[in-house]
Write a structure and sequence with these properties.
With 57 residues, the chain is mainly α. The chain is built from 2 helices and no strands. Helices cover 67% and strands 0% of the residues.
């Protein structure tokens, strides 16, 4: 199973990481990103754990 990030989600992730770096610093932003990657791996191995979101404007 593969997690697919659409363009909007990818941009929101980039924005969140930039905000985290600016607000909390590089180390905390890297820890936050590492946790996101951990959850992505968990979702890959347990695809029914999450819900596919509907496209919203």
């Amino acid at each position: 199973m593969q997690v697919i990030w659409d363009d909007d989600a990818s941009q929101k992730l980039i924005n969140a990481l930039e905000y985290g770096r600016y607000t909390f610093g590089e180390r905390i932003m890297e820890k936050f990103y590492a946790r996101i990657l951990e959850y992505e791996k968990l979702l890959q191995s347990n695809p029914r754990m999450g819900k596919k979101e509907r496209n919203t404007p």
